[in-house]
Amino acid sequence: MPDSHLPPVDELLSIAVSALGGSERQGQLTMVRAVQKAIDDDEHLAVQAGTGTGKSLAYLVPSIRHAMGSDSPVVISTATIALQRQLVDRDLPRLAETLAKELPHEPTFAILKGRRNYLCRYKATAGWPEEDEQDQLFDPREVSATGRMVQRIQEWAEETETGDRDELVPGVSEQAWRQFSVSAQECLGAGRCPSGAECFAELARARAGEVDVVVTNHALLAIDAMGDLPVLPEHEVVVVDEAHELVDRVTSVVTAELSEASVMLAVRRVGRLIDQPVADQLMEAGEDLKALLAAAPPGRIDELPQVLGLTLQLIRDTAWRCITAMGPRNADKDDPDKAGQRKAAFTALDEVHDTAVRMLDAYGHASEADRAEVVWLDGATDRRPPSLRVAPLTVSGMLRDKLFGERTVVLTSATLALGGTFEALAAQWGLADGKWQGIDVGSPFDHPRAGILYVAKHLPQPGRDGLPQQYLDEITELIEAAGGRTLGLFSSMRAAKAATEALRDRLDVPLLCQGDDSTMLLVKQFAEDEPTCLFGTLSLWQGVDVPGPSLRLVIIDRVPFPRPDDPLTSARQRHVAARGGNGFMAVAANHAALLLAQGAGRLLRAQNDKGVIAVLDPRLATARYSGFLLNSLPPFWRTTDPAIPRAALKRLTTDPS
């Protein structure tokens, strides 16, 4: 049925809102029309839609209408599992039932994840090559805990209908799950695998190929757009929700790692398939890498040291010898066990070889402006040895050519207009010179009446030596005025723990700190007990949704610039500067603005919410870039007078209305 024979998008939205018990909001209506126009005009669209706008409905209605009229599914991509689950378990089922009578058939939908997220039936039952032969190096308690998880997966494997890892509650460790899953590169393929006909990943793909709306994540969207083989069904329209996270998620997908562990995994997998002397050469190269990384300082590697260059060349060349010694890739295709072992070996060898090539290719450019990738050394931690990593300095070209070049893309989030415009994120997405438009549909909240943005201009600038005493005094007075009810967002886990430790004795309200228990349980406890305070770091800046009187005060300790020694962001700053741009504003200030807006967005989550955002860092009022950061935030009423937020919080405590 062509689009012209379907009900107008306004009418469908009105029916959906009435049936779901809501009320029509101007921002939602503006957004639904803009999304429909972008689809009709084949034009990319960025939509900033504040909390409470109802943006999910505003993009789902035109998406479903397009799928019905074109016989082509619409792909909805999200950054978080929580939003995926909300769409698939709540929003789409209710909307499909509501619109069924208005459309040719009841809208259908499915969720699709990367292959690693599904149980591999063949691997669960066959003699697959060992993932890790170093279990004896682990703490015995960890090994036994992993063993219990493995047993739980085996029991679940007998009864699951989807094979989806997220069904396992509580979750299991990556070490346990690896024994039951394969990557796309390791997979034998449905045609050659004895379990191909009942493969969970293939069944999920088949379902996705028959529905109107496919819900996926940014990582799989990137893999589909940039890979050689399609993962998602053929589609004309993509909606990217939580679009402020797109660049980071795509960067993660295309970041590669090289370590002694990855080399030794390739050695173990190839060991029984080629002559031992050839495998031994790769093992010796891995041992050289181990010794080199153990002695080197962590951080960005701007110039390739000779010894590292020689080691990377050795790994590249010995991995290639192993690949050559393996012979044809499709050998033993009629013997699934041997074919599985060969596929696993080729996958590990390809990863080692290709990563070494990428790292070597990152050097030798005439100028900084010509450089495409950055290499750095991740130092050892308690749980993992050091490793080399390589990542692109920008993903804008990839996104422009691979994602935006092939289809219509709608990008939406509560925080997209940094400094008051969409230009910053559009440049990161590669849209700067393309056919696109950006709109801000506003928010149903009356920010100046509902919230105060207080910047503690009188405090000293934050230093590197922890929280100054004046900051602790300020936090204490604000929390006392609010009667608890505080979410403390800190720039580091160290700062959050230090503040918790210093203030627990000074405050007579419960004080929780991220890490005391699972984040989900801490947020639940915080929401259910009004006087309780919760302190934490990055995941709380973006992941907390606590409407009502349990949250009246959000404290932000400092402007959340990236760490100066962060290898990727510092390299990106320098790269922008080498090309004539302002590296600080394009990278560090954008990063800070995005996080500040996300953090400030924790305060107002429901129509009757009120409270205070308190930023302790005076730079938000005094620095030359403060205007850019302030223009990235919702339009709260602003003050630098410490008496005003305290008085407002005390009034809210005695009279919540």
Automatic annotation (TrEMBL):
Catalytic activities: ATP + H2O = ADP + phosphate + H(+)
Gene Ontology molecular function: 5'-3' DNA helicase activity; ATP binding; hydrolase activity, acting on acid anhydrides, in phosphorus-containing anhydrides; nucleic acid binding
SUPFAM superfamilies: P-loop containing nucleoside triphosphate hydrolases
Key words, A-Z: ATP-binding, Helicase, Hydrolase, Nucleotide-binding
Record-annotated Helicase ATP-binding domain positions: 14-286
Presence of keyword Hydrolase: yes
Biological processes per GO annotation: nucleobase-containing compound metabolic process
Family per record: Belongs to the helicase family. DinG subfamily.
Name of the featured protein: ATP-dependent helicase DinG
Organism: Nonomuraea thailandensis
